[in-house]
Amino acid sequence: MSAEWQAFWTSWQFDAWLTLALVLAALIYLRGWLRLRQRGARRFSPWRLAAFLLGVTTVGLATQSPIEPFSTLLLQMHMLQHVLLMFVAPPLVWMADPELPLLVGLPKVLRRHLAVPILRDPLVRWVTHLLAHPAVALGLFVVTAWTWHLPALYQAALTSQTWHQVEHASFFLAAIVFWRVVIGPYPNRSTLSRWIVLPYLLVAGLQGTVFSGLLTFSDRLYYPHYETVPRLWNIAPLDDQAIAGALMWFSGSVAYLLAVAWVAAELWNETPQPQMAGTGRRLPAGVRERQKTALRISKLRTATKKSTRASPEVWDCFKLPFVGAVLKSKAFRPTMQTVLLLLAALIVIDGLWGPQATSLNLAGVTPWIHWRGLLVIGLVVAGNLFCMACPFTLPRSLAKTLFRTNWNWPGWLRSKWLSVALLIVFFWAYEAFALWDTPWWTAWIVVGYFVASFAVDGLFRDAAFCKYVCPIGQFNFVQSIFSPLQVAVRDGNVCHTCDTKDCIRGGPQGSGCNMELFQPQKTGNLDCTFCLDCVHACPHENVGMLAFVDSGQLTAGGMPSTQVRWYRRTDVAALLTILASAAFVNAAWMVEPVVRLEEQVQAELPLISRPVLVSLGMVLSLAVIPAVVLLAVAAVSRWWSGSKRGVLETATQFAMVLVPLALAMWTAHYTFHLFTSAGTLWAAGTRMLSDYHLATFGDAALACACCGDVFSWILPWEILCLDVGLCGSLYVAYRIAVADDQLSWTVVKAWTPWAALSTGLFVTGIWIFFQPMQMRGTMVLGG
Amino acid sequence: MRIPVWQIVVVAAVWFTFDPGGLLADGGRVCWSGVSSAYRLTVFAEPVPLRQGRIDLSLFVQDFEELTHVSGVKATFALIPPGSATPLLEAEATRSNATNPLFQAASLIVPFSGRWQVKLLVAEPEGPFYSAIFPLEVAPAQDPVWKMAFWIALPVVPISWFVIRQLVHSRDAHRSKNGRS
Ligand code: SF4
Ligand code: SF4
Question: Do residues A641 and A717 make contact, with C-beta atoms less than 8 angstroms apart?
């Protein structure tokens, strides 16, 4: 065997994602096919299964076999690849009538909550309807084929892997659209006559012949790339081009002829049997099939509606095997709290008595790198997990027993203003005293937290500390508004008939909600500590940990505890605004241009000390500028849309717009530090153990304490976070704007200023990500 | 209204797993070809255009007369920076670095842009190494913002989808309202 052939047979490619997609598609089809067969759907015969598997395999062959690497060396190989993607795989896939088996083969939860809503989406239906039109499908197919074969584009695809993939994807998708019209797969057949397919194929065949002829008979080389590459099997570039043209002509012709035969056979077999009522005429087979399908679909719809009404089918964490039981167990929370309490004790010990080298001290790294990173990950993937495992509230019962006062929290402090003030103080202290750089101060903050929560919870009723004081809690409450899990009622009807309301009052099974949240009226996660007290207290086991985002909280929701709509609560709006501005200010204060600006200002104003300067900067950037901007945007929105609400009320109403972008910024920022400096935990831990002669502290640990490599995926990850945040903010603004009205110009006018603000924040975030950033708390070696 | 979290998770996963970055592989554009006493040599460079940062150089060796492929030839690329006479980077071109076994590839990180010289050393079957020198134009690194343009522009897709969807929806609602009245 020649070296070329040897190389050919050993040049198999492997693209993990593509392989995964193809295997998944095959498995889903197989599952659906088996289920339909079990239900007696004889239409799905084994040859349909074989056709689908063959189609999927053909895509795999075209993209992952030796044809792929050789396609840049020989035009005929490249053409073979296109033939497989345009003339072989798509008709095979459609002959398998894949729509129903793929839908039925999906896991139930994906089918109900993803596939069906997408298929029912008006835009999706409109687009699929449009693409099913023969003129559109044929036009798309022809334009795609001719455009990509223009020398400039073809050459680009030959020298760039990305363009090569785009080219293949567009060929395959255009062919999928084209062949759907020809095969007319069950059950969504076009209502147009099948006769139209014959001229459709004729036009496609004609243009294919012209194209192939141009390649085969030309004495000009259209793609100079093939002239520059080495000759394989001694094939001259012009001969290669001619073979490629012939291959395309032959394969195209065979495919079109087979298709004509398929359609002709179909038309031939259309022997009319049943008669149309009253006319004496028989219905054509296609129409009968469509009628049956329509009947089946309408039955399916009714069944879905009925079942949806009966059970909301929202995924419940507690129903997970083992995990659900562990989560629900009464010992779960105290165990988690004890673990964190021990960790907090270690941090305090090391912070107070360990060496004050930030990156080698547990208090210097754990709270500022690991805890913050894991906290936001928890918020994004689940919910308020930190409050659930919070060690500060563990001694609450002890405090209540000791103090026995049980005072009511003062009425004038029953708002978020105190926590807003504390948050500003915290962010100011963080920058002014470089808290991340002083383990001793960090340890004292932890101690202070324990003392404050012990005192407040001991003196006052319920969970006053969590609800009105704790800045960490407020951060978690706000960010968890968009977390995917919620502690919520499973079935509202059960609450309707419930007499005891133990979830808030408490009962024999446990105390009620300390945060004064009444489950049937609770919307969203605001103020919920995920303590699961309501879960244990409810005698009907009607509270679950459900996977959904309550979009009702954006508009009709109330502050659950007080039943006052949150958009009338300026304190809540202030909290949302402070946390959003802090997300950007906290990250921006670490980037080089801002650090330089701070140094310049300090150099020019030597009489003002750094803490005072930072205080001014913090007050301006955290409170004054955001408040002015928010009110200005609200004024424009109100004026433009002609709203009757006041400026402050409009600002309060729309403040929620800031939350998705803020969560995105916090996530990007904190995970950046976590991913780049996770090893510091090992370094600081080893050092602490070595202090007590429990381990040896070597150079490796020291080196690890320095900042790690910034992975190439970190920047795309950070931008992706902001992308999601921007989409979320724009959507929230839309939902709030449309709440009072139908979609109209008024809504667009109310929405636009908030969209502009969101976009401005997005651009600011992107700018921050592109700046060099201080690796706080991780520099040991020279950095 | 409850938005099932599955929709959000799955859509996010699809976005996240879609990696638009071009892969570096043997192939790209031919940047030089020539003959030694025994071989016909062709060098490919990728990405196209070549930019400061990681580049792939792949070598295709053929028999001088028969034009058949020859494998396992010892070959090295040495890169000489602009304005210098001594190589700064050097890497052996091996078959294991290439995805197509017809090639021998080497991956190098070019620290700055300009007109570099590539010195190709190929062991001849008889006698010493054959060497050839050819220029390699390396463009400055892509602007980082431009490099991330795909990720920055990504929201345009869901936003456009949503806008069109709402327009179609409101048009349908408008029509059915008019139809009823
Ligand atoms: S959650 Fe449970 S205790 Fe609370 S109202 Fe509903 S059924 Fe009653
Ligand atoms: S008791 Fe209250 S705070 Fe705790 S999980 Fe239930 S609703 Fe949330």
Answer: no
At A676-728, the pLDDT tens digits run: 888 888 888 888 888 887 777 665 455 444 444 556 788 999 999 999 999 99
- B/e letters for A180-206, b = 16+ CB within 10 Å, e = fewer, are bbbbbbbebbbeeebeebeebbeebbe
- Tell me how far apart the alpha carbons of residues A704 and A670 are, in angstroms, rounded to a whole number: 19
Whether A231 sits inside 8 A of B172 (CB atoms) is: no
Give the pTM. Answer: 0.73
Ligand number, closest to the Cα atom of A383: 2
Is 80 exceeded by the pLDDT of residue B66? no
Domain residue limits at B50:
29-142
ipTM of this complex prediction, to 2 decimal places: 0.71
Q: Taking every pair of C-alpha atoms in chain A, what is the biggest distance, in angstroms? A: 103
Q: Which tokens in the block code for residue A749?
A: 């006018």
B108, two tokens:
């190098």
Distance between CA atoms of B81 and A83, rounded to whole angstroms?
Answer: 45
Domain match, B12 and B80 both: no
Give the best residue of B69, B157, B170 to mutate against chain A (max A CB count within 10 A).
B69
Out of B71, B152, B159, closest to residue A727 by CB: B159
B116 with B161, same domain: the answer is no
What was the pLDDT predicted at A469?
93
| CB distance A75 to A226 below 8 Å | yes
How many CB atoms are located within 10 Å of the residue A373 CB?
21
CATH number at residue B101: 2.60.40.3340
* A516 φ, ψ (degrees, to nearest 5): 60, 35
Question: Which pair of structure tokens corresponds to residue A315?
Answer: 């995924």
pLDDT digits 0-9 by tens, A115-139: 887 888 777 888 888 888 889 999 9
Q: Which residues, in sequence order, are bridge partners of residue A549? A: B3
Domain count, chain B: 2
